[in-house]
Amino acid sequence: MAGKEEGVSGYVCTPHGKHSLSLVESWKKSPNIVGMYFVTATFSDESVPYFPNKANNYVLASFSNVKSVLDDIAKSGMDRLAFTFSLNSPLFERAGDKLNYVSLYFTKYSSGDPAIGDLANVIARRDRVVKASLAEMQLLAAEPPKFTFPYSKNLVILEVDGRETHQTDQKYCERTRRDVARKGILLNNLVSFSILEKLK
């Protein structure tokens, strides 16, 4: 099982601040970190109670080995809530030019559900979504939150390409969510990350 975990890729999201400076410098040199961005986060109203120690600005990094990232964060002495989003089932991927926006949703469906095929087909028609995956979330906190988020194993992550404003990206993702809803598949917004600067 350990070997499988080490091979899991995905995103890590750590609050931007004094604790993140050494992480950023270390991750710039790490072959495990594929891309890294300075982002601003927008949490949905319904997700806020589950993440009481959230921040506004984060370092969002894509990794190829989750265990290495967890070790890095444990050593950093992070004092605010951090997350990993491990990708467990890609829905589709195509070439893109510039990652601009990453949006996460939660759903009642899991990877074995037939509705996931319909979900992938609808999202694939949205030309600015360059990658869609099913994901699992892990919270990294000194103290566990009061409430456990019930859909942490049922996430959908969309990566949006382009050079539009982040408000335009948000509206684009909302239209995508509504297109999916017309198929009877409910997606609920969890958090969105607007990319402000590419760090790696």
How many helical elements?
Answer: 5
Q: Please state the structural category.
A: alpha+beta
CATH topology, anyone?
Answer: Alpha-Beta Plaits
- Rg, rounded, reads 16 Å
Oligomer: single chain
Beta fraction of the residues? Answer: 35-45%
Average of pLDDT? 91
- Could you say how many structural domains there are in total? 1
Instruction: Report the biggest beta sheet as strand number plus sense, adding barrel if it closes.
Output: 8 strands, antiparallel, barrel
Helix content: 25-40%
CATH architecture: 2-Layer Sandwich
Shape: globular
Distance, first to last CA: 30 Å
Highest-level CATH class: Alpha Beta
Enumerate the strands of the largest sheet in spatial order, edge to edge or round the barrel: 1-3-2-8-5-7-6-4
**What is the ordering of alpha helices and beta strands?**
HEHEEHEEHEEHE
Number of strands: 8
Q: What ranges have pLDDT less than 50 throughout 5 or more consecutive residues? A: 1-5
